[in-house]
Specification:
By secondary structure, this protein is α+β, with helices and mostly antiparallel strands. It has helices at residues 3-25, 99-108, 113-130, 135-140, 142-157, 176-241, 244-254; strands at 27-30, 34-40, 43-49, 52-55, 61-67, 71-80, 86-97, 162-173, 269-271, 282-284. The strands form four sheets. A three-stranded antiparallel β-sheet has the order 3-2-5, covered by helices on one side. A three-stranded antiparallel β-sheet has the order 6-7-8. A two-stranded antiparallel sheet has the order 1-4. The radius of gyration is 57 Å and the shape is rod-shaped.
Length: 288
């Protein structure tokens, strides 16, 4: 094989290799959940490529992949509460970028948009909202605080095309002095509630005893009234049934056999007392 023939083979091989490389570089595949930002000689196209296979100008155009999937960003933040307590917060944010904003984000921010825009915005939102609540409120109103931070964060990054899907406060930490103060307050509140409960129990028992005494007094009074009414009714019946003969008969039945020394003229029984030893005569007095 002479040199001319070898040179021809080399040229053909190089040409084939160049064509192959050019062909491969003319095709790009955008994976699912990504957008392909097309850059032509350093200029970013306004429209990003959707997932799938696309053609591009070899050696002239390049495609930058931008992730459209939901991503997670965790941030530790230090802030100050409304009552000047130091608050250490750990937050987690789920976010994504839209395919429509992928090209603009790459043009204005780059692929490091999470470090450049999102994390500082999270820090600022946490600090600004925490300053509106006392340390105790940050604990008791944690859900409301989280919603407000998420709203503030959305307002800060939405113009960049970053969408906040979910915001979570992982943890709030305070100074040791504040934790001790909170514990002491909780103990005091528990003691107060226990004292209030015992006081209410005593009041209830006293009211129950008073009600029992009132019921007993009312029952006793009612019983006495009924007894008095019964006695009065019985006396009325007795008085209605009495007459002169019955009264005389009762007097005779109650006489003990002894003669009185003085007899009234109104007496219903007359006793004659003789001067000698004659027998006493008992006669029925008749009214003249």
């Amino acid at each position: 094989m002479n040199q001319k023939k070898i040179k021809t083979i080399v040229i053909v091989a190089v040409a084939v290799l160049v064509v192959l490389i050019a062909g491969l570089s003319a095709v790009t595949i955008v994976p699912a959940g990504n957008s392909g930002v097309v850059v032509t000689l350093g200029k970013v196209d306004d429209r990003a490529l959707d997932s799938g296979m696309h053609f591009k100008l070899p050696f002239v155009q390049s495609v930058i992949m931008m992730n459209n999937k939901i991503q997670k960003c965790e941030v530790d933040s230090n802030s100050v509460s409304k009552d000047l307590q130091t608050v250490s917060s750990a937050v987690a944010v789920n976010f994504h970028i839209t395919s429509d904003s992928a090209a603009e984000i790459y043009r204005t921010i780059g692929v490091q948009y999470q470090d450049t825009v999102l994390q500082p915005a999270i820090q600022e939102a946490v600090k600004s909202v925490s300053a509106q609540y006392t340390a105790e409120e940050l604990i008791t109103k944690r859900t409301a605080v989280g919603d407000e931070i998420a709203s503030a964060l959305t307002e800060k990054v939405s113009d960049y095309g970053i969408i906040i899907d979910k915001f979570n406060i992982v943890n709030f930490e305070f100074s040791e002095e504040f934790n001790v103060a909170i514990e002491q307050k909780q103990v005091a509140e528990q003691n107060y509630l226990r004292a209030q409960t015992e006081k209410e129990q005593q009041i209830m028992e006293a009211e129950a005893d008073a009600k029992k005494q009132i019921i007993a007094a009312e029952a006793e009074a009612e019983a006495k009234l009924k007894k008095a009414e019964a006695e009065a009714e019985a006396n009325e019946k007795i008085n209605a049934s009495l007459n002169g003969n019955i009264l005389t008969y009762q007097q005779i039945q109650k006489w003990n056999g002894e003669y009185p020394s003085v007899v009234s003229s109104d007496s219903s029984i007359l006793i004659d007392v003789p001067m000698d030893d004659t027998s006493a005569v008992v006669s029925q007095n008749t009214a003249e």
